[in-house]
Amino acid sequence: MSKAIVSSLYDSDVFRMACRQFDKAADAISLPEAIRDRTKYPRRCLAVSLPVKRRDGSVTVFEGYRVQHNLSTGPSKGGIRFHQHVTLGEVAALAMWMSWKTSLVGLPYGGAKGGVIVNPSELTESELEHLSRRYMQEMVNFVGPHVDVPAPDVGTNEKIMAWMMDTYSNHVGHVASAVVTGKPIALGGSQGRREATGAGVAYLTKKYLEDLKLPVNKATAVIQGFGNVGSETALALSNYGAKIIAISDYTGAVYNPKGIDLNKALTYVRYQKTLHDFDGGEPISNDALLELKCTVLAPCALERVITDKNAAKLKCRVLAEGANGPTTNAADKIIEERGDIELIPDVLCNSGGVIVSYFEWLQNLSNYYWGRDEVLQKLFGMLDKAKDAVDAQKRKFKFSRRLAALTLGIQRVADAKQSRGLFP
Predict the structure, then answer these.
(1) What digits encode the pLDDT tens for the residues 326-343?
(2) Domain of residue 76, residue span
(3) Exactly one of 113, 206, 207, 394 is catalytic; which is it?
(4) Longest dimension (CA), the chain
């Protein structure tokens, strides 16, 4: 008989939320007790101190983490987040979701995630480079093209991935392009990688609108978060003909029922860094943005923004989860009971990023590169396959779409662990 473990190491609201999702899915597929905890809890984690010399000569020590959730199905894969509110529990939850996501879409990866407690906007370019390189230096024995392959996440970008790839390459004594994904094209990055997550969110949204017989060119969309994922989702939906009526970042939201001028917004953010004081519409709060009447609501920022406080007030037809874990368990229940919102769960909806990261990794290992159209064609093909599998699971077992997606992902990881056996 297996003995359940209770981990205090990762204890946090978001980790407990991920565990509750797992428990519900494991119960739904009657996952044997002997395999549950092995499938549920992270395989290992590393916490590191990162001293950085500041411009004024002082030294600040930052704290960083890397959690590898599952290594049974291949190298682990997941982003690195630079954010002032990073916690080990959050990183562990994100690593867990990455396991189910990579498994769901059929990639030979386990899930991982990294994070550093820092507000990158408070660092100079040189300090940011030192922090990025120091983080990778501490991870050298913990990552690698066949061990764990990091990527960008909130607060990081392709420039930071370039510094990390260079640091790792210097340590191993040769160019190791495949150690990270989301790199600049000049260093082995993939065509289509920058827009991949947002393009995938928009593509799946369009497919579900078609299923609902709602023409995308008559749809209105509200995008919460205007970083890489949010802005690319907005652009792709706009290119399909949808009208983007509101966008936001942490400084506030902008609402324009006639449609936001996205090129103007992107240019503004490029120079001002935030949407604060952007004059493309009426300023509203982030809370008000989530409750706007629209066809599509796409939360594309941080986790746990749709809660039991606002779930009953949502006025969208499709909820497309561009972020990881944006909907709490309590909100999920409310949305399910309402029955009038089509939810595209995060592990399916935002999987475009890791799919094209996989393509980038393959191209690096083979030193053979594809064009953008080929990348996007392959991406959409894999998304179609994953969507069909999730919807078939949903119909077969009368599950919610989230439960359908999670049960598929979790079952595949559990099967791999069962097949490999337990190393003595």
Answers:
(1) 999 999 999 999 999 999
(2) 13-187
(3) 113
(4) 64
